[in-house]
Amino acid sequence: MRREFLVGVFLVAITLAVFWQVTGHDFIAFDDPEYVIDNPMVRAGLTPQGIRWAFSTFYAANWHPLTWLSHMLDSHLYGLNPGRHHLTSLLLHLLSSLLLFLVLVKMTTTLWRSAAVAALFAVHPLHVESVAWIAERKDVLSTCFWMLTMWAYLRYTRNPGRTSYLITLILYALGLMAKPMLVTLPLVLILLDYWPLGRWARAGLVHEPGRHGGRIAALVWEKAPFILLAALSSTVTLIAQWQGGAVSPTEIVPFGVRFWNALVAYLLYLVKIVWPVGLAVFYPHPGRSLPWWLVLCAALVLVGITLGVLRARKTQPYLVTGWFWYLGTLLPVIGLIQVGEQAMADRYCYIPLIGPFLMISWGAPALAARWLTPRVLLPVLTAATLSALICVTWGQVRYWRDSFTLFTHTLSVTTNNSRMHNNLANVLAQRGEIEKAITHYEKALAIQPKYPEAESNLGAALISQGRVEEGIGHYREALRLDPNLAEVHNNLGVALADQGKTEEAVSHYLKAVELKPDYAEAHNNLGNILADQGRFAEAIARFQEALRLQPFYPQAHNNLGVALARQGRLREAIPHFERALELQPDFAQARRNLTIALQETAKSGVPPAQL
User: Fold this and answer.
1) Which three-class secondary structure state does DSSP give residue 292?
2) 470 found inside a domain
3) Tell me, what's the pLDDT at 209?
4) Looking at residue 606, which CATH number applies to its domain?
5) Which of 69, 286, 509, 603 would you call most buried, defined as having the most Cβ atoms within 10 angstroms of its Cβ?
6) Which of 462, 484, 487, 483 is nearest to 472 (CA)?
C-alpha cells in the first residue's frame, strides 16, 4: 500500500505540474460559447428548469445531461471564471489517472507497469485537448465513470452478485449520460475478461456455458444489459446529431472516402503516440485528396499489427487486449459516420490510447528480458520518456491559453484549414481588428468557396465597417449555399430592419423561427419590429415566447417591459425591467426604463410616452 500511495503522489505531482497552468487560461472561442458563455441555461447555474432542460435537450447536437449538469454546477459555484471551470476539468482528469492506476494494479497485481500506463495517460500530449478545452468536459467526466465502471466490474467478477452487477450497470449508464463514447465499454469488459482477468480460460461465472455456446458466449451474454444501454445511447446520439445537422451526408463525404480516411487516422494516431508534434485543435478533412500510397501503407500496418497480435496471443495476451481496445474504442469516432468536418481529433483518442499504453508498458519489459538488456536501462528509458512527454505536453498546454494563440498555432501546423481561418477571423473581429478579420475570412473562402459560415461572418464584418450592401450580399450568398441557416436569416433580418426594409426583415425572422422554433433571439427581434409597428399584442407574444425559451434573456425582459408599458400596463412592465437589471446589472437602457416606469406609476393617469 505504501508503494501504491507513493505512485499516486507521483501521478498527482506530474499531472499538476503539466496542467496547473490551465487555471489561468481563458475560454476558447470554439464550442465554449455554445456550451457555457452564451448558454443561458448553463450560465444560470443549477436550477430546476436547467435540470429539466439538461435531460430533455439535444442542444449542441448531443444528449449528455450529466455534462450539462457539470457545467451548470461550475457556473453556480464560480460564475464565468474560466480558471475555475478549467480546474474542474483538471481534477476530473487527475481522478481518472489515479483510478486507472488503481484498477490496473488490482486487475494485474503488477505495480510498476500499471503505474507506467497511468503516467502515460496522465501526461501524454494527445490528452491536452480533452483537459484544456472546457467544452470537452464530457471527455474527462465520462472517463471518470468509465474507470469507476471498470472498478465496479472488477469487484463483481471477484464477488458475483446482483448488487455488484447493478452498481456496475448504473455507473455505466451514468457514463453514457456524460458522453456516448462509452458505448464501446462492453467490448472492453469482454477484452478484460480475456486479459488480465483470465475469465475466458475459466468456466462461466454467471451462466452455464453449455446453455449459451460456451464460456465466451456466456461472458458476452453477461454483458447484454450493457450492450442494450449502448444501443439505446447510440440511437439517441444519432438522432441528436442528425437533428443538429452534425452528420455529413454521403453525398458530401462518400463512404469510400470515409473508409480510406479512417485507415489513415488509425495510423496517424499511432504515429502521434510516439511522435506527438504538430498537434492541432482542428485537422481539416482531406476529402478525396488522400494519396493512395498512404492509404495502402495504413492498411498494411493495421493488418500486420493485428496478425502479429493474434499470433502472440498465447504468450503475450496483453497485446490482444491493448490492440483491440485501441481499434474498438476508436471505431465510433473514426469517421465512418462523419460528424463535423475534421479528419481526426486528439480528443477522440482520450480513452483509446489506454490500449497502446498497455501494449507498451507490458511489452517493453518483455522485450528487455528477451534482449538481455541491463535491468537499469528500462527505468532510465522510462524516466527519459516521461520527462520528454512532460516537456512536450507543458508546451502544448500553453497554446490553449486563449483563442488567438490556439488558432494561430493551429494554422501554423496545418494546411488548407478554412475552419481555423474563420475562427481566427472571429477572434480578430471581436478585438476590433476588422481588416485583419476580413483577410482571414477571405482566406477561408479561397480554400473553401462553398463555406456559408465564413460568408455570413464576412458579411457581419463588412456591415460593422459600414459596407452594408456588401455585407448583405454575403448574407444572401450564405443562404444561397444553405437556405436552412436560421442564424443567417436572423442576422440578415437585422441588417434589413436597420435599412428600413421592414417587410423583408420580418420574412427572414419568420423563416429563422420556422427553421429553429427555439430561436429566442429571432423571436425577440421579430417582437421589436412588431412593437415598432404598434402591433403590441403580437409583439408581447413574441417576447413572451423568447422568455419561455430563454428565461434568463435580459434584452427580451426589457423589450417586453417596454411593450407592456406602451399599452399602459406599467405595473406588469416594472418586474421585467427589474429582472433585466438583475440578469445584467450594467444594462443602462433597462435602468432608464425602470426609472421612468416608476416615475409614471407615481403620476396617476399620465401615459408612459417617454418609453
Assistant:
1) helix
2) no
3) 42
4) 1.25.40.10
5) 509
6) 462
Average pLDDT of 476-492? 96
pLDDT of residue 251: 62
In the chain, DSSP finds a helix count (H) and a strand count (E) of: 30, 0
- Reported as a single tens digit per residue, the pLDDT across 518-565 is 899 999 999 999 999 999 999 999 999 999 988 889 999 999 999 999
User: Please, which residues bridge with residue 247 across strands?
Assistant: 339
- Grid cell, residue 205, equals 461465472
Distance CA 382, CA 379 (A): 5
Query: Averaged over 71-90, what is the pLDDT?
Result: 97
Domain boundary among 371, 386, 401: 386
Query: How far is Cα of residue 587 from the mean position of the Cα atoms in its chain?
Result: 32
Tell me how far apart the alpha carbons of residues 374 and 195 are, in angstroms, rounded to a whole number: 28
Last residue of a domain, one of 386, 411, 441: 386
User: How are the residues of the chain apportioned to helix, strand and coil, as percentages rounded to the nearest 5?
Assistant: 75, 0, 25
Rg of the chain, C-alpha, whole Å = 28
Q: Taking the CA of residue 594 as centre, how many other CA atoms within 13 Å lie in the half-sphere pointing to its CB?
A: 17
3-state class of 481 per DSSP? helix
> In the chain, how many domains are there?
2
CA distance linking residue 356 with residue 353, whole number of Å: 5
Answer for the pair 558, 593: CB distance below 8 angstroms, yes or no: yes
**Amino acid at site 14:** I
> CA 363, 369, 372, 378: dihedral to nearest 10 degrees?
60
Give residue 31's identity as a one-letter amino acid code. D
Phi-psi region of 179 (alpha: psi -120 to 50; beta: other; left: phi over 0): beta
